[in-house]
Design brief:
Elements lengths: L14 H23 L25 H7 L8 H4 L3 E7 L3 H17 L1 H4 L4 E2 L2 E2 L5 H6 L21 H18 L17 E4 L4 E8 L4 H21 L6 H14 L4 E4 L2 E3 H14 L3 H16 L2 H13 L4 H18 L5
Antiparallel strand pairs: 1-5, 2-3, 4-5, 6-7
Helix pairs in contact: 1-8, 4-8, 4-9, 8-10, 8-11, 10-11, 12-13
Length: 342
């Protein structure tokens, strides 16, 4: 009930169009909320002080979806009630193109949270993970684990395989769990880090925390697009999925400082520098302006790491709750002004 989702009516052709359109939406909503409710919009992947009893599942349009989810899963937890993500849809032309993109995105999804994490705090306390949103996300459907898998998508060779082995499996498991309506055989129920949205001929990337401002979300989208293009053109051997899953879990916990096993390096920061180099090589001049934001995150730490450090420093002069409010008040301004926090 505390989350507002903004999405475009049609795809954007340019990053600048993406930024301008969505920032106008942010400003329109901000004016409405401040004037009518004395409330503010806030970015990042989790609300830092919200208690679960202070919010709830959306009771209006599409509420029947949550009704069926609630038959199997406990919706009164952070993995359902307190997560805000940035979802990027990448179009594909045909099946061959789609399979290439899907398999390359498995690698990107594993290392992307190293720079996209923005959820260091929840319920007024410092979480144990750099990306607490993804930590809870991985647990929220544990009763039917085939829905989320290991978050990192499995490598596939055809739409038929995807429909039978992934959608078919979790649909069968949902039916066994007592849900035969609404959810089975729906592509959007798949909760992996990248999923096919067949109705819009796109792959939806889901592993990114919402950032502090639209410009930062655009920067992440430019990185994903350009890195994806480069990985496909390299046509190198796929990194073993077991390695990707292990590295992803380490990154959710430790961010850019995580120890990993990628051929590019043994630290997440090393791997991401190589991926960023691939992105730069395949980016347009306009995209490179946004990639500079990602570059700063690789050097200085992701938003989650920086916010955590700022809160801890502030807490040395006051209590933790006041420190959290002080730092997140600046993040509110970042969203309104469309300026990265650092």
């Amino acid at each position: 009930m505390h989350v507002l989702e903004l999405k475009p009516n049609q795809p954007f052709e340019l990053p600048t169009e993406f930024e301008e359109t969505m920032q106008n939406a942010v400003l329109t909503l901000t004016e409405f909320l401040e004037r009518g409710y004395k409330a503010h919009l806030l970015g990042t992947g989790m609300h830092p002080t919200l208690r679960l009893e202070e919010t709830g599942v959306w009771p209006h349009r599409h509420r029947q979806i949550y009704h069926f989810y609630g038959k199997v899963f406990n919706l009164k937890q952070h993995g359902w009630l307190n997560i805000q993500s940035f979802q990027l849809n990448l179009p594909y032309a045909n099946e061959k193109d789609a399979i290439q993109m899907h398999n390359a995105l498995a690698e990107i999804c594993a290392y992307l949270p190293a720079v996209s994490a923005s959820s260091p705090i929840y319920e007024g306390k410092l979480g144990e993970y750099v990306d607490n949103r993804l930590h809870f996300y991985m647990l929220n459907q544990k009763e039917v684990p085939s829905i989320t898998g290991d978050v990192i998508p499995e490598y596939i060779s055809s739409f038929k395989q995807y429909r039978e082995e992934i959608i078919g499996r979790y649909s069968s498991d949902l039916i066994k769990a007592g849900v035969s309506e609404c959810l089975p055989y729906r592509d959007w129920v798949n909760s992996r880090g990248a999923i096919f949205r067949f109705d819009r001929k796109a792959i939806e990337v889901r592993v990114m925390d919402e950032q502090e401002c639209v410009k930062s979300d655009v920067a992440l989208s430019c990185f994903v697009r350009t890195a994806l293009k480069g990985i496909i053109e390299e046509d190198r051997a796929l990194v073993p999925r077991e390695t990707l899953v292990s590295d992803f879990n380490a990154i959710v916990r430790d961010g850019l400082n995580a120890r990993v096993n990628h051929p590019f390096g043994r630290k997440a920061r090393q791997v991401f520098k190589r991926l960023l180099k691939i992105a730069w090589k395949n980016a347009s001049e306009e995209e490179r302006k946004y990639l500079s934001i990602v570059e700063k995150r690789v050097e200085n730490g992701n938003l989650s790491e920086v916010v955590r450090d700022h809160v801890l420093r502030r807490a040395q002069k006051t209590d933790l709750n006041e420190a959290i409010i002080s730092v997140y008040s600046k993040l509110i301004k970042s969203l309104i002004n469309n300026e990265p926090y650092f």
